[in-house]
Each structure stands twice: as C-alpha cells, then as structure tokens.
Specification:
about 450 residues, Rossmann fold, alpha/beta, about 20% strand, binds zinc ion, GMP Synthetase, Chain A, domain 3
C-alpha cells in the first residue's frame, strides 16, 4: 500500500520547501506552534474582529499547542454578523471571494476572502492530494461547478495539469441520464462529485452500458458519505471510493483519504484541528466524538481562529495502515445543527436515515420532512425511485424506518409518528455548499431548514 502523498507534501511544507524528508510529528508540532503564534499576532493586529476578541490575551503566555484553548471560539454567526471585520488585507490583495450558499435562513452573507497566495495553497493541495488515485495522463470528470474562473471545478482542473492529468468540468448532475451518456462517451478514469449525485448515477446506471472498471476511482466531497452510499458505488462500478473533507471556510484544505481509506489524513501544515465538546466547549481527548474546530495556519486574507465547523467526528486512534503518522479524522457522522430534537430525550439526524433508506437499490434519493402531527411530531418521506421500480419498495422503506432504532424508540415513546412514504422526484442540489438535512417545518421548532 502506498503511503499518502500528503505525508511527503506536509514534510516539505513544514520545512520551508527544502528537500522532502520523512514527516516527523515533533517537527510538525513545533511548526504548528510557531504558525499559531504568528496567526494570533497577525489577526490581532490586522483584523478588527480579532483585535477586539483577543484584547486581553497575552501572546507571550502562549507556549504550548493546548494554550490555544484559552482563546474564544469563532462561529458561523460571527462570520455572518461581522464579515468584513475578519479581513486582514486590503481589497486590492483579494483575488477571490467565495460566498457559500447555506441551508440556513440568515440574511447576512458569509463571504470568505482569499488572496493569491491563499489560492495557490488550494491548488497545491489539490495537485498533491489527487495523485493519491490519479496517475499521469488520466482523465478526471469533475461533477462540480466550474464555469467561473477560480471556481472549484476550475481550481481542480488547473491542479490536475500539474500531475499532468486532464480534468474536464461537467457541473453538478441535474439529468442523470445525460450524465451517464457523457461517462460512457468519455470513459473517465476518475470521477469527482458529491455523494447524492454519484449515488443517483449508480442507481440509474445499472445495466445501461457503463463498462466495468472503466471508472477506476471516485472522489466524494462536500457532504456526508454514508457506508451504504460508499458500498453501492464500489459494488456497481467496481472502483475505489475516496473521501475529501474541506469546507469553504477551511479553504477546501481539510483532509483526504489514502489507499487505506480509513479516515481523512488531515492537512496539518495548513490547519490546526481540535475536537471540542459541542455543549461545553471543552477539548476532548483523541478518539472521543465531538465538534471539529480548526485554526488556519497560513491564511493571508481571512485567517480563522478556533472556527466551529458544526461537523461531528473524532480523531482515529493509531497510525494508518499506509504508514503515515499524519492524524486521521473519521468520516463526518453528522452536523451539530442538523441533529433534530424530538421530545425531551430523542435526537435524529439524516445520517441515521440514510443507512435505512439508501441501502435499497431501487432508491435514488429521498427527502425527510418533519412536521407537527396530531399528538406528536410526524415524519413523512418523499422517495425518488429508479425508473420502472415497483412501488412496493415504498412499503419496504417504511418497514426499514420502523426498524431504525432512533425512529422506533421515538415512536414507542410517543414523540414521533411515521406519516406517509410516497414516491416523488427530489430536487437536485444547486450548490455543493448545501448539505442534506431533515426538512424541519414544525411550528416553534426554532430550527426550520
Ligand atoms: Zn493513510
């Protein structure tokens, strides 16, 4: 098994571009401490938001990595309310602004600014990361937006040129039949896309002419990757599926799976990660499940310090089978804000429903809608079935949901009832930034999405 290319890349980056050496955790931690101190000093002097937030913090007292826990968290709400106050450079040095569309109803835009140097780091990471499963001269089909210069598709295409490999942007999948015909015509070696899109292709594609082994690897990005989705893609296309972790706020740099595919190797040369208790903010020991928090180490235009991602995960204990000591983050289990409370003691996230419903080959996608029922909350499901699928599958979906422990426990306790399960076409995502979630339309839920 090949060691992740991110190991050597990280070693090179933390030694200021000198000859690549084997990664040493001690060197990495020294580098991170120095960069954290720099980031805090730089942000305190250049960002109006952090100048105020850190006014009582003495940088001289920062001697250990864990000292960062004395600083306050930055939240998405802070970014929305005080957006321009995070900027550390003049507008003339801003090369690109990303405005992620979110599923929340906030009226304030959350703009993330990047300088030319920030953009180069993204391309450099994509270039080295993609070599995990992309060889020279291979073709990569990018099922992400890419029309605009410096969009994700464009950045990925430019990074592939450095391998050198060929990337071509297809955009998000809106018509699976058309997308399938493009795959058959172009026979890409690698496909990059979001999980729900790729699953819809796999389900449409059974028996429709995709050659076995024509697609060698698939990279899934931008949303949860449930075991069911992963297994379905690998089984139907006989390929290897890899996962990428990285939000716009992270500068897309979070982490990438290696050939062992047992968690995202984190890009610790550019981000410092903590796992925090979502309720108390206390930093948790390695292996404990909590909210992912990161601090940028090299960001020029808009550094973020202790940014709460709302993603729930944990650091995978031990050294990876590939031989790298780079820490790994387990696949994201859910988002703090997407877990919905039912009654006093029950919680439900879409991740738990995915495994019950998407495991059926006849199901392409679904939408879960939570509303006020007569005596309890009510959960209804619109299920998109494969063309020609027998409607009796809907009954199987219902049985599987009642077999799901989170659903059945809430039903038994009288806080949830299972409403209708009906067939329908689910809207396709318009942006990679929109994560799937249970649609909560309850009155007074306070968490409508
Ligand atoms: Zn590995």
């Amino acid at each position: 098994m090949r060691i992740t290319p991110l190991d050597r890349w990280t070693a090179k980056r933390i030694s200021s571009g000198c000859r690549a050496t084997q990664l040493s955790l001690k060197d990495l931690q020294s580098y991170q401490l120095e960069r954290l101190k720099h980031t805090i000093s730089y942000s305190s002097s250049s960002s109006a938001f952090y100048k105020k937030a850190f006014s009582c913090f003495n940088i001289e007292s920062f001697n250990l990595l864990r000292d960062i826990s004395r600083l306050p968290f930055t939240t998405s709400h802070d970014l929305e309310e005080h957006n321009s106050q995070f900027l550390c450079v003049s507008q003339s040095l801003v090369e690109r602004v990303f405005t992620p569309l979110t599923s929340t109803l906030s009226s304030n835009a959350r703009r993330i600014y990047f300088s030319g140097n920030d953009m180069e780091r993204i391309i450099d990471f994509f270039h080295h990361g993609m070599t995990t499963f992309t060889a020279a001269n291979q073709n990569v089909m990018i099922m992400m937006p890419g029309e605009r210069p410096d969009s994700i598709g464009d950045l990925l295409t430019r990074s592939l040129e450095r391998i050198p490999a060929t990337g071509w942007v297809y955009d998000l999948v809106r018509d699976p039949v058309h997308a399938m015909s493009e795959i058959s015509r172009n026979e890409p070696d690698v496909i990059v896309g979001i999980p729900a899109n790729i699953l819809s292709l796999v389900r449409h594609g059974v028996g429709s002419g995709i050659h076995s082994n024509s697609v060698k690897s698939v990279l899934l990005t931008s949303d949860y990757i449930t075991p069911t989705v992963l297994t379905s893609i690998e089984r139907q296309w006989e390929c290897r599926v890899f996962g990428h972790y990285g939000s716009t706020e992270m500068g897309f740099l979070g982490g990438l799976e290696c050939e062992a595919r047992s968690g995202y190797h984190l890009t610790e040369s550019d981000l410092y990660f903590e796992i925090a208790d979502p309720a108390t903010g206390e930093i948790l020991e390695p292996g404990c499940m909590g909210e992912v928090v990161f601090t940028t180490l090299n960001r020029e235009a808009m550094p973020l310090i202790r940014y709460k991602t709302s993603d729930l995960s944990r650091i995978v204990p031990g050294i990876c089978q590939c031989g790298s000591e780079l820490r790994r983050l387990e696949k994201i289990r859910a988002r703090v804000n997407d877990i919905i409370k039912l009654g006093k003691n029950h919680w439900l996230g879409i991740y738990e429903l995915d495994d019950s419903i998407l495991g059926l080959d006849e199901v392409i996608d679904y939408r879960a809608i939570l509303s006020n029922g007569d005596n309890s909350d009510q959960l209804d499901f619109m299920v998109e079935l494969k063309e020609g699928a027998d409607k009796s599958v809907l009954q199987e979906v219902r049985l599987r949901l009642l077999d799901n422990s989170s659903v059945s426990n809430a039903v038994v306790d009288g806080v949830l009832s299972l409403g209708s399960v009906y067939a329908g076409a689910v809207d396709k995502p318009v942006s990679t930034a929109i994560k799937r979630a249970i649609q909560d339309v309850r009155r007074d839920s306070g968490t409508s999405k």
